Amino acid sequence: MYNIEPILHPLGSGITIIDLMEGGIQGRTGCYVIQGEKTAIVETGSSLSKPYILAGLEQLDIRPEQVDYIIVTHIHLDHSGGAGSILPHFPRATVVVHPRGARHLVDPSRLIAGARAVYGELLETAFGEILPVPEDRILIREEGDTIDLGGGRVLTFYDTPGHARHHFSIYDPVSEGIFTGDTIGIRYVKQFTGLEFEPIYPSTSPSEFDREAVFASIEKLEKLGAKRIYHGHFGMTEPATLAFERTRKTVAAFVEIARSSFAPGMDWTILADQLKQYIKEDMAEQGHPVQDLTPFDLDQAVNAKGLLYSLEKEAKNR
Ligand SMILES: [Zn+2]
């Protein structure tokens, strides 16, 4: 029915990741399908990923009317930009979002304006159309709230700022895993980097990155004693402690690098190069010397901008 071949990876415990092929690239951004008596998907990606989700669900023999929940960990466009566009395909589905994100799904004009400022006329090329979600199709989940998928699969939501303030994470008792969006680091998988190992580095993107909030979110999620982490980018880390440790270490390192070279009005490219230098040394330290860091370029540009933004803000408030 769809003119594409979706790439699916079964992860056990009734969880499958559908590759959203963001930017036409494998292993970048994923949509998780959680199958209980009810079905939930986590993340839609942008509307450009819609055909992959629909074809992926078809491959899993899930009919559109069987999708009950579309959960978005936060409202960055690479996670939820396509929510309004895909919702009409699922007649019974509810979009589940953090309290701070809901109004931007209902009225995406501020999201679009913000993204337009960054991407200009390339916005549609990068993320496709961004359509509103009707208010009566939205379910807000706050700290400790749950969703019951039936058969003992009760998902619990936790407020986890750090990457963004409109970010929650979801604990699933069946897999003993947590869907952490971008809060507990990005896992750089083989399909994306071409490397034989899969390192984890943080996303410190603008405009709400907050180091202390990341540490508090790690501490909160660690207490759940989960076994695995499901990253927004990309796939699963097992044991979960590895993702927590890596994120704690590398966020601290990134902020320290940014602080030590920071000057107001500083050129972000200088910091991006320093972050890449750190990544190079850190990978070598883990026994994986790598020369070509091209797959990490874009994220370090974004990370450098986010770190500088947070330091500028801090300097102004002083
Ligand atoms: Zn993301």
Which characteristics define this entry?
6-stranded mixed sheet, 318 residues, Metallo-beta-lactamase, Chain A, 7-stranded mixed sheet, alpha/beta, binds zinc ion
Strand pairing plus helix content: what structural class?
alpha/beta
Helix content: 25-40%
Strand order, sheet with most strands? 1-2-3-4-5-6-7
Largest sheet: 7 strands, mixed
- How do the SSEs run, as a string of H and E? EEEEHEHHEHHHEEEEEEHEHEEHHH
Portion in strands: 15-25%
What does this structure look like?
This protein has 318 residues and is of the alpha/beta class. The chain has one domain: Ribonuclease Z/Hydroxyacylglutathione hydrolase-like (Metallo-beta-lactamase, Chain A, 4-Layer Sandwich). Helix content is 36%, strand content 19%. It is built from 11 helices and 15 strands. It has a 7-stranded mixed beta sheet, with helices on one face. A 6-stranded mixed beta sheet has the order 8-9-10-11-14-15. The chain has a two-stranded antiparallel sheet with strand order 12-13. Helix 1 (50-59) links the parallel strand 4 and strand 5 (67-71). Helix 8 (211-222) packs antiparallel against helix 9 (240-261), helix 9 (240-261) crosses helix 10 (268-285) and helix 9 (240-261) packs across helix 11 (297-317). It is globular and about 55 Å long. The structure holds zinc ion.
Give the SSE map.
Blueprint: E1 8-12, E2 15-19, E3 30-35, E4 39-42, H1 50-59, E5 67-71, H2 77-80, H3 83-86, E6 94-97, H4 102-106, H5 109-119, H6 123-127, E7 138-140, E8 146-148, E9 154-159, E10 168-172, E11 177-181, E12 186-187, H7 190-193, E13 200-201, H8 211-222, E14 228-231, E15 235-237, H9 240-261, H10 268-285, H11 297-317
Parallel strand pairs: 4-5, 5-6, 6-7, 11-14
Antiparallel strand pairs: 1-2, 2-3, 3-4, 8-9, 9-10, 10-11, 12-13, 14-15
Helix pairs in contact: 8-9, 9-10, 9-11, 10-11
Bound molecules: zinc ion.
